[in-house]
Structure formats: structure tokens, C-alpha cells
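Per your request, structure below.
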């Protein structure tokens, strides 16, 4: 019995020692000046700055309404969370072996993202992340000013972390195009070729005006439902580099113009165009002698951004005047 008691004490002592050596000391395996790749508290981060070797620059700042990209656009919430998750949990596993040192440095010097992390005015982190995986799908990172690159991983995972440090503005921008943190006052939808379906909706007075005589009283339920739907309008993507942009804006076939005015905000304006079919088109709309893609449209947003819209989001906006007077 006494011998078992002694063995039990030895086992307990070994367990405690292992805990302190392996787990409690884990963060001290590498000098923070050489391997400071992980943040401790994401709620304290106020800004992130990312720049690529192609000089693509992204500034993310925390605001009362969420994260803002380049001081101008709402950031995608899921993209910010994706990056924050890496910053919270990634850790240096080991220095890059000497046999791979030059290879890793080449990856970092030719295709990487530099990230800076700020808490208020203080820059707490600055390091480079290779945008191409190394041998075995590992991620190479290099502390700013350091000489030794490290292999950095998420615990119990072998996922490549470089994909989280992207720098294209179109990938960071929120695609919810008609949302602002203010109540809608008015909506105006004008159809280029079907003026009798155009309408002006007053969301405060719950009235709808158009170019036809209404068949009955306005359906308040439909008015309220329509206004709510506008908060959830997404574009499929930003197409500012699309080679068809100038041609569409100068000579494209317009479908409609949508203007949404919110309290205390500048109006949002969306001009929607029929989209020429391409190899990916599954069905077509025929207007006169011309065919257009059935499932998607182009649009010009606030005289600034060229967008791709799918049919589902387009149809949410493009209701007709008589619909607001029809019974449920």
C-alpha cells in the first residue's frame, strides 16, 4: 500500500512537471522579437494594415458600425473574422530548417503580405506572410526586421495560412450594396423601356406613386416587406476591371435605375444593365434582335463601381407599380 502511495506521488509530480514544461512554457519556446505572430486579444485590435508585393494596400479600421476598408467601404465581416482567427491562434512551430532557409526567403521576398497590427496608436505586430505554401503545405512567416523565418501553423491543423492575408480591395469589401445604418425614407425605381411599371415609394408615409391609376388601396404589408428586402441586397462581385465596363456604360442596354434615400444619408443609385451572354450563360433573354444573359446583370453603383448582380437580388428590387396595390 505504501509503495502504491509513493508511485502515485511520483506520477502526480511527473504530470505537474510535464504541464509546466510543455504547456505553460510553450509560449516561451521562441523569442518574441523573432516570432511575434500571435495576438492575445482581438477585441483590443483597432486597426490592421496589409500590403502586398504588388503594392495592393488594405487598411482595416474598427468603427462603431463595424470594420471599414480604406476609410471608405464596409468590410466583409466573415473576412475580418477569418483573419482574426489566424492572428489569435497561429503559432510558430519551428524556425525554417537551414536546408529550406533560402527557399523560404525567396517565397517571402517575391510573393508575400506584410501585416501590421495596431492597438490604438501602438503598433504591436509587424511581419511578413508568404502567399504560396512551402513544402508540405506549411506557411512561412518572417518578423519585420528579423533574419530567421519560421514555420507557422494553427494547432492540430495543416492548413495554409497565406490565403487569409489577401490584399485585393474587391475581396475585402462588403457585398451588401444597399445597406446603411439608417432607416429608408424613399425608393424610386425607373424602368428604361417600361415607364408604366416605374414607381416612387415613400417608406415613411407608406405611399406609392406611379404612372398608372391604382386599382385599390396600397397594400401596406407589401410596402413594408419590400423596404425590408432592400437591406439584404448583395452584389455577386465587383467588376471594375472587367473589359466590358466602358462599353456597357456607354452603349449598354439599360434595364432600370434604383435610387434609395435613407435618413441623414446620401442616396444610393444603382443603374442596372442587361449583360451580354458568354460561355457560362445557361439561358438567354431575347430583346429584339439581341440576346442577354438570363441569370445575371451588370450594374453601376453610385457612379463609381461596376457590379455583377444575380437575378434573385435584382428581382427583389425590381418590383412593378401595380404589385403594391394587389391583394396578398
Amino acid at each position: 500500500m505504501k509503495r502504491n502511495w509513493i508511485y502515485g506521488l511520483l506520477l502526480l509530480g511527473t504530470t505537474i512537471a510535464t504541464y509546466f514544461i510543455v504547456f505553460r512554457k510553450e509560449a516561451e519556446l521562441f523569442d518574441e522579437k523573432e516570432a511575434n505572430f500571435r495576438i492575445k486579444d482581438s477585441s483590443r485590435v483597432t486597426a490592421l494594415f496589409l500590403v502586398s508585393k504588388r503594392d495592393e494596400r488594405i487598411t482595416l479600421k474598427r468603427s462603431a458600425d463595424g470594420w471599414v476598408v480604406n476609410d471608405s467601404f464596409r468590410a466583409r465581416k466573415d473576412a475580418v473574422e477569418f483573419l482574426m482567427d489566424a492572428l489569435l491562434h497561429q503559432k510558430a512551430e519551428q524556425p525554417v530548417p537551414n536546408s529550406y532557409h533560402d527557399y523560404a526567403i525567396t517565397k517571402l521576398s517575391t510573393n508575400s503580405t506584410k501585416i501590421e497590427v495596431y492597438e490604438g496608436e501602438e503598433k504591436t505586430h509587424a511581419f511578413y506572410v508568404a502567399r504560396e505554401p512551402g513544402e508540405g503545405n506549411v506557411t512561412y512567416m518572417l518578423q519585420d526586421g528579423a533574419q530567421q523565418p519560421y514555420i507557422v501553423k494553427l494547432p492540430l491543423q495543416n492548413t495554409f495560412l497565406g490565403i487569409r492575408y489577401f490584399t485585393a480591395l474587391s475581396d475585402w469589401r462588403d457585398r451588401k450594396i444597399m445597406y446603411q445604418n439608417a432607416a429608408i425614407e424613399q425608393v424610386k425605381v425607373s424602368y428604361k423601356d417600361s415607364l408604366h411599371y416605374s414607381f416612387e415609394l415613400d417608406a415613411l408615409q407608406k405611399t406609392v406613386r406611379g404612372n398608372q391609376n391604382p386599382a385599390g388601396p396600397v397594400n401596406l404589408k407589401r410596402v413594408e416587406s419590400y423596404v425590408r428586402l432592400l437591406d439584404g441586397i448583395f452584389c455577386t462581385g465587383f467588376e471594375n476591371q472587367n473589359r466590358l465596363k466602358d462599353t456597357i456604360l456607354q452603349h449598354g442596354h439599360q434595364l432600370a435605375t434604383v435610387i434609395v434615400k435613407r435618413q441623414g444619408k446620401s442616396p444610393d443609385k444603382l443603374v442596372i444593365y442587361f449583360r451580354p451572354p458568354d460561355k457560362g450563360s445557361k439561358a438567354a433573354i431575347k430583346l429584339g434582335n439581341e440576346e442577354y444573359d438570363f441569370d445575371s446583370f451588370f450594374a453601376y453603383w453610385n457612379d463609381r463601381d461596376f457590379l455583377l448582380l444575380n437575378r434573385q437580388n435584382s428581382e427583389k428590387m425590381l418590383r412593378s407599380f401595380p404589385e403594391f396595390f394587389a391583394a396578398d
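DSSP finds seven helices and 19 strands in the chain.

Regards,
D.
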